[in-house]
Write a structure and sequence with these properties.
The protein is mostly helical. It contains 16 helices and 2 strands. A two-stranded antiparallel sheet has the order 1-2. Helix 1 crosses helix 12, helix 5 runs antiparallel to helix 8 and helix 11 runs parallel beside helix 15. It is a multi-pass membrane protein. This is MFS transporter. It is found in: Cell membrane.
Length: about 450
């Protein structure tokens, strides 16, 4: 079996490989604490369950703001200071949970971390997009997702071994280590970005005209091609990712299945993601993004079909196999989505607005992740548990159709888009960005 991920990693610029290493470091830290926040706040800090889950909502809502703010800062002040600020804020936010003793402290820590989380989504995408081009860019986004899953998985194992509700100090140390991981990742990012500065209009062949919204998000909101992508992003988050850690475990609980089934299902999910990207990242990166999105929605529809069969009550062993298989099928869509969406967004983005395009993309993802659990909870609250997989499965089918239409009607050709070279400080002589505007609005 040929490991395409290794070959693809070798073709990336050294700067991009350092970015991958930074992502891996921060992901290990995230994995140390991600599974335990509600458990920590309730059983260690004595907060009500409702308050603990509300903190999760605070993080999600705050991320809606963090992404667009970071995107605007990246365009106006440069990605290097923006990355440093995002990582430092994340470190403060997650380490703040170690000091929580009451509700206000938990909300403040959640708000801080949520802002940073949204900002980091924009930062990672902008950094990778500006350091790669063409097929390498798609492969880089895929490999970033692999690093994320490997890091979170490794951190989860270490955190599970070390954590103990009988010793609050252990949880505090885990949150401090998570904070340190963001500082280390931030330092790697700052070093990797070197002396790069933000683009200015004078650096471009194409300068935004007065009144085009160049100082805000107006230019982004007037890009119809991007708005279609963002709408599809929200929909995919609602019917897919927004259910992964909320309604799908809820369905297992409502059906009275063994809780260990979900543990094994998530193990299968993570292993499948890593395996798919390891052996097929090059082939995935060569596939048009719209086709990948259609395949993503189709695989998630398959996941809901398997969950519908599990909800029908086919016996303990069969139900367990169906749930584990469902999350393995879901992993196929995750692996494809991780390449398709950021590649598509960044192929549409003119270099001068790249931060804002990724900020809008981050906000769209966060919006879907907020709406998804609310919709799933409402469907689970109905007397008929089959409603959840049926409604969301049909939603996936509709998303697949929309992705096909997106590929046919798009006025641009994202797969062929090329990013502009970056600006570096070279002893006082600058190598400028270059953006060539083609007929129909395509950027190469």
């Amino acid at each position: 079996m040929r490991l395409e991920s290794v070959a693809a990693l070798r073709t990336l610029p050294p700067r991009t490989r350092v970015v991958m290493a930074a992502n891996l470091v921060s992901s290990v830290g995230t994995g140390l604490v991600q599974p335990f926040l509600v458990l920590y706040l309730t059983r260690v800090r004595g907060l009500p369950v409702g308050t603990a889950t509300a903190v999760i909502s605070v993080i999600s809502v705050a991320s809606l703001v963090g992404g667009p703010v970071a995107g605007r800062l990246a365009d106006g002040f440069g990605i290097r200071p923006t990355a440093a600020a995002a990582m430092a804020t994340a470190a403060v936010g997650t380490a703040g949970f170690a000091l929580v003793t009451e509700v206000s402290g938990a909300v403040l820590a959640g708000l801080t971390y949520g802002l940073a989380y949204g900002a980091m989504l924009s930062v990672w995408n902008v950094v990778i997009a500006r350091s790669t081009q063409g097929e390498s860019r798609s492969a880089a986004f895929g490999l970033q997702f692999v690093a994320l899953n490997v890091g979170v998985g490794l951190g989860g194992v270490l955190g599970g071994i070390f954590a103990s509700t009988a010793d609050p100090g252990r949880f505090q140390l885990l949150y401090v280590c998570d904070g340190l991981s963001f500082l280390v990742a931030g330092a790697l990012l700052v070093l990797a970005l070197g002396g790069r500065r933000a683009p200015s209009p004078s650096d471009h062949d194409t300068v935004p005209e007065a009144g085009t919204g160049a100082r805000g998000y107006g230019v982004v909101l007037r890009d119809r091609a991007l708005l279609k992508v963002l709408a599809l992003t929200v929909a995919l988050m609602v019917v897919g990712y927004g259910q992964l850690e909320s309604s799908i475990p809820g369905l297992v609980a409502v059906q009275g299945m063994d809780a260990r089934i979900m543990a094994w299902a998530f193990v299968a999910n993570t292993c499948c993601i890593v395996l798919i990207q390891a052996v097929a990242v090059t082939r995935i990166s060569r596939t048009p993004p719209a086709a990948l999105l259609a395949a993503t929605a189709t695989s998630w529809a398959g996941c809901w079909l398997l969950l519908l069969l599990a909800a029908a009550g086919a016996g303990t062993a069969v139900e367990a196999a169906l749930v584990i298989g469902a999350l393995a099928v879901f992993a196929v869509g995750e692996a494809l989505l991780a390449v398709a969406l950021p590649t598509l967004v960044n192929s549409l983005a003119p270099e001068v607005f790249r931060g804002r395009y990724n900020g809008a993309y981050s906000a769209a993802m966060s919006t879907g992740l907020v709406i998804g659990p609310l919709l799933g909870g409402a469907l689970l609250g109905a007397e008929q548990t089959w409603l959840l997989p049926v409604v969301l499965g049909l939603g996936c089918v509709m998303c697949a159709g929309c992705a096909v239409l997106l590929g046919r009607r798009s006025p641009r050709a994202p797969a062929a888009a090329q990013p502009a070279p970056e600006v570096y400080d070279t002893g006082g002589h600058e190598v400028p960005y270059r953006v060539e505007q083609l007929e129909g609005g395509e950027v190469r």
